[in-house]
Design goal:
CATH class: Alpha Beta
Radius of gyration: 20 Å
Strand content: 15-25%
Helix content: 25-40%
Shape: globular
Strand order of the largest sheet: 1-2-3-4-5-8-9-10
Order of helices and strands: EHEHHEHEHEEEEHHEHEH
Number of helices: 9
CATH topology: TIM Barrel
Number of strands: 10
Length: 279
C-alpha cells in the first residue's frame, strides 16, 4: 500500500470572499487546515507582505503559495506592469517562505507581456528558487459565442512550462478532461486547486464532490505519483449568508481532501492468510 500523502491541505484566501484575508487565516486555523494560499487581491492587507506575515504567525498558518494578481480585476494591484507583478509575487513568496507562485497565462490584449511571459516565468524561477506554476484556464461563452481570452490559449501545456497548477473548476468550465490534463502536466504539476464544477461554461468553484469533475481520482493519482505539492481548496462561498454557513462548506471541503488523500489498501496489498495446520 502506498504511504499516506505528504501534501499539505491549504485554504485559498479567495475561498472566504467577501470576508477578508484575516478571516481566512482564522477559519483555516480553527478547522485544521495545514496552511494558506494568499490571493493577492484588491484588499489592502492581501497586498501587504508584512501584515500577511503577522497573520501567519498569529494563527500558526504557514503561507504555502502566493497567487499573483493576474485576474482582470487586479490589473492595477502592485502596478500596471504585469512583469513587475510576477516579480513582486515571487519576492512576496520568498519573504513569506512559500515555495509556489500561481500565475495565469497572459490575456490576449497583453501583447508585449505575452511575448515575454514564458521567458519571464523561467527567469523568475531560476533566480528565486520559487516554482512559478502556470494555471489552466477556460474559454468565455457569451451569447452563444465561445472566445478564448488568453494567449496563446487556456491550456498551458500547449506551450510548455516547467511547473503547472491544475484547477478542477477551470477544467469543468472548459469542458477539458481533467485526468488527461493531469497526465500532460506530468512531473511539472506542483500545485492543485481542488474544487468542482457542473460542466456549465462558467467558473463555479463548487465544493469538491458536488460536481462532475474526477476530484477523488485526481487525488488518488497524486498519491500514486508521490506528489508533495500543496492541495489548495479554492471554492466559492460568496453566497453564504453567515460565517457558520461558510465554515460548514470549508469543513466539508477539507474532509473530502483528507479522506481522498489517504491511500486505500487493495486486495493484493493484504498479507496472504497463514496456512492451516496439516494443509
Amino acid at each position: 500500500m502506498p504511504p499516506p500523502s505528504s501534501s499539505p491541505v491549504a485554504l485559498s484566501t479567495a475561498s472566504v470572499y467577501p470576508e477578508p484575508a484575516a478571516a481566512a487565516f482564522a477559519m483555516a486555523a480553527e478547522l485544521g487546515y495545514d496552511g494558506i494560499e494568499l490571493m493577492v487581491w484588491t484588499e489592502a492587507v492581501s497586498q501587504d507582505v508584512g501584515a500577511v506575515a503577522g497573520l501567519s504567525e498569529r494563527h500558526g498558518m504557514p503561507v504555502v503559495a502566493v497567487h499573483a494578481p493576474c485576474l482582470a480585476v487586479t490589473q492595477r494591484v502592485w502596478g500596471t506592469d504585469p512583469v513587475e507583478r510576477i516579480r513582486r509575487s515571487v519576492a512576496a513568496a520568498t519573504q513569506l517562505g512559500a515555495g509556489i507562485v500561481v500565475v495565469h497565462p497572459p490575456f490576449r490584449w497583453q501583447v508585449r507581456y505575452g511575448d515575454v511571459f514564458a521567458a519571464e516565468v523561467a527567469r523568475a524561477e531560476e533566480y528565486s528558487g520559487v516554482a512559478v506554476a502556470v494555471e489552466n484556464m477556460f474559454p468565455l461563452v457569451r451569447g452563444g459565442l465561445r472566445t478564448v481570452p488568453y494567449r496563446p490559449g487556456f491550456d498551458p501545456t500547449d506551450v510548455g512550462h516547467r511547473h503547472y497548477t491544475l484547477d478542477l473548476s477551470h477544467t469543468a468550465a472548459a469542458g477539458s478532461d481533467a485526468l488527461a490534463m493531469l497526465d500532460r502536466m506530468g512531473a511539472g504539476l506542483v500545485h492543485l486547486h481542488l474544487a468542482d464544477g457542473s460542466g456549465a461554461p462558467r467558473d463555479e468553484h463548487l465544493v469538491p464532490g458536488r460536481g462532475t469533475q474526477p476530484c477523488a481520482e485526481v487525488l488518488d493519482r497524486l498519491i500514486a505519483s508521490r506528489f508533495t505539492g500543496a492541495v489548495v481548496l479554492e471554492i466559492s462561498t460568496r453566497r453564504c449568508r453567515t460565517r457558520y454557513e461558510r465554515m460548514a462548506l470549508l469543513a466539508e471541503s477539507l474532509l473530502f481532501a483528507r479522506l481522498h488523500l489517504q491511500p486505500t489498501a487493495k486486495i493484493t496489498d493484504r498479507p496472504a492468510p497463514a496456512a492451516r495446520p496439516g494443509v
